[in-house]
Design a protein that fits this description.
single chain; mainly alpha; Globin-like; 64% helix
């Protein structure tokens, strides 16, 4: 069986806001703990962790991107991912680090099966699209 986003959104299939926020939080925790070069590209708090404001903004984006409430768009406008990442050198290594952190977050959040495969593939497509350096 393959996940069909025309029948249920990935947001719904994952379990809604609480689960998506859990994945987003674990993503940044994984980044802080295991991908310091990637974390350093973000605004950091006094403890050297990705700032709570950046974490919240990504959680809202992720909720909307997965088909949930569009709060990110209401507050911040269209994400314009390529434009927002244009000032950052996104290499294959950074793309891979981003994906490692996200896979760890999905693992730690217990996301499995067809929805996992679907979400991971779509995130991989976005991460690859944002590459702007070798």
């Amino acid at each position: 069986m393959t996940f069909d986003p025309t029948k249920v959104t990935p947001y719904e299939a994952l379990g809604g806001e609480a689960k998506v926020r859990e994945v987003a939080a674990r993503f940044y925790d994984a980044m802080d703990a295991h991908e310091p070069a990637l974390a350093a590209l973000h605004r950091l708090d006094d403890a050297g962790r990705v700032h709570p404001e950046a974490r919240e903004k990504f959680a809202l984006f992720f909720i909307g991107w997965l088909g949930g409430p569009q709060t990110y768009m209401e507050r911040h406008g269209h994400p314009r991912l390529r434009m927002r990442h244009a000032g950052v050198e996104v290499t294959a290594a950074m793309r891979d680090a981003w994906m490692r952190a996200m896979k760890r977050a999905l693992d730690e959040s217990g996301v499995t099966g067809d929805v996992r495969d679907f979400v991971e593939a779509k995130l991989g497509d976005v991460a690859t699209m944002l590459r702007n350096a070798p």
